Amino acid sequence: MRQLVIGLMTAIVLATSPYIASAQTSATLDTSAEGPTISRHLHGQFVEHLGRGVYEGIWVGEDSSIPNVRGIRSDVVSALKHIRVPLIRWPGGCFADDYHWRDGIGPRDQRKGTINSSWSRQPESNQFGTHEFFDLVEQVGAEAYISLNMGSGSVRDSQAWLQYMTAPASTGPGSERAKNGRTEPWSVPFVGVGNETWGCGGNMTPEYYSDLLRHYSAYLKNASGPTRPYLIAVGPDTDDYNWTKVVMERAAEWRSQSEGNLLWTSERPLFNGIALHFYTLPTSNWGTKGAQLNFPEDQWMSTMQRALLTEEVIVKNLEVMDKADPKKRVDLIVDEWGTWYDSDPTIPAHLNTGLYQQNTLRDALVAAVSLNIFQNHADRVKVANIAQMVNVLQSMILTDGPKMVLTPTYHVFDLYKVHQDATLIPLTFTASAYSHNGASVPALHATASRDTSGKIHVSIANLDPHKSHTLTLKLEGHKGKTVTGRILTAPEMDSHNSFEKPDVVRLQPFTTAKLTNTTLTLTAPAKSVITLELP
Length: 535
Known about the structure:
Elements (H helix, E strand, L loop, with lengths): L5 H11 L8 E6 L13 E3 L21 E2 L2 E2 H9 L4 E4 L23 E3 L5 E3 L5 H11 L2 E5 L7 H12 L5 H8 L10 E4 L12 H12 L12 E8 L3 H11 L6 E2 L2 E2 L9 E8 L16 H28 L6 E9 L21 H16 L4 E7 L9 E4 L2 E4 L1 H9 L6 E2 L2 E4 L2 E4 L2 E4 L1 E7 L5 E7 L6 E8 L7 E6 L16 E4 L4 E3 L2 E6 L3 E7 L1
Parallel strand pairs: 1-24, 2-5, 2-15, 5-8, 8-9, 9-10, 10-13, 13-14, 14-15
Antiparallel strand pairs: 1-19, 3-4, 6-7, 11-12, 16-17, 18-22, 20-21, 22-23, 23-29, 24-28, 25-26, 25-29, 27-28
Helix pairs in contact: 1-8, 4-5, 6-7, 7-8, 8-9, 9-10
C-alpha cells in the first residue's frame, strides 16, 4: 500500500469541487431523475485469517460454550443478517496468496496445521476452511467472493479448487466434496485472480501480472451453473495509475471467444472488474499512521481529507480505464477500504492482536463518506469490501470471548442498507465548509436513492465535529408530505462502544426534519450521520 500525500491533492480537490463556503447548505434533488442502480455488493465484507478475525470472531467450534451453529457463532451471524451483508470476500488479503485450499478440507481432526507466514507467523489450525466458509455465507444469506492464490499457487491449483466447489457430485471433484459433507455444488459468483500482486501477493510488475492474468482467465471456469464467474483482476494500490493502465491495455482484451463448439456472439473482456485498494490513514504515513483514540482535531481533519480523496482516486482510475475500455465494460471494484491506525497500547493484550483497533464516531463518518462516494459512482463502482468484518481494522463487530459489541461503523451500514439495489438520485450541492488550522472540507456530504417501492432515502454526513449545519433541500417532482429518519452521533470525536459500555454510539430517531410543500429542511448536529425516508 503506497503512501499518498494529501496536501497538494486535497487542494486540487477543493479548488475544483462544487462545494463553496456559505452559512447554510442548499441542495436540489430531482426525484424524477433516473440514475444507475446502487449495487447491494457495495456493502461487501472482507474476512481474512488475521488476528481474531476468524478464530473467535466467527469460528468458535461446535463444542464452544458460546452459542453457535456448526461452530459459527450465532450472535455474529444474527448481527450480519440484520444489516443485509450481501457479499463476503475470503480467505484474504495477503493470507490468500499463501493459502492452499486442501489444507482446509476433510475431517477437522485430521487437518494439518500450518504457519500464517503473512501475519506474524502465527499458527493456522485450518479448522475454518472451504466448507466452514460457505456455511457462514449461507447462514448470513450472502454471496461468496473467493480470492485465489496466485502468489504461491498455480493455475492448476486454482482450477482444481473451483471444480471442487462447483462440480456436480457425480464428478470426481464433486464426489470428493460430497464425501466431505456437501452434496450440492456451491455458487461461486465472484473470483479474485490474485491479491495485491504488486506487494505481498508476489512483488510482480504490472506487465508480468497482466500476462499471468491472461493465462489464469483461460482456465477459471465453474463446473456447474454459469460457465464463468465474475473475474476480478488485481488493480492499483491507491494512486498507482500506471498499474491500472498496463493491466487494462495488456489483459482486458475484447474479442469473440470460443468455448467448445460455442462461439460467443458478443465480445467480452478477459475479466469483469479491476480491484482498487485504498485505506484511510490520518497521517498518510505507513510508518506512523495515527492514533485510534484520544486523537487531536488535526487528525480528525486529516482523516476526513483522506476519506474524501477516495473520490479523486476513483475518478482518475476510471479515466485511465476508459482510455482502454471506452465502452465501459470493466467495472471498478473497491476491494479493500477502511481506516488503519497505529496499535493502541491501552487496549488489553488479549484483544490487541492482528490489527485489532477500536472503532469510533470518526470511523462512522469515514464509512458514511465512503459509501456516499461509492453510491454516487454506482454506474462503474459495483463491488466494495470494507476491511474487515470482525475484530480487524474498521470492523462491524468486536468480540471478547462470549461478549460482542456493535461498532459505530456497523450502525452506518444499518443506516445505509436502504440504498442496496435502489436507484441513485443525483444531488446538486452548494455546501458550507468545515475548517481547521488552514485546512477545509465540505461540512456536509450526501447521497440519495429511490428503492423499488418508490420510497426516497437521503443520507447526510456532517463532518464538522463542533457545529451543526442546516440543509435546505429542494425536492423537484416529489409530492409526499411526511419524512422520518434516524441519526448516529455521540458526544466526543472518539466516542466508541466498549464491552463495558456498548451503547455509547447508537442509532436514534431523528424527528426534527421538516417537509413543507417541496422543501425539506433539517439541521444536522455536529459529527453525525442521518438517513431520512420520504414515502
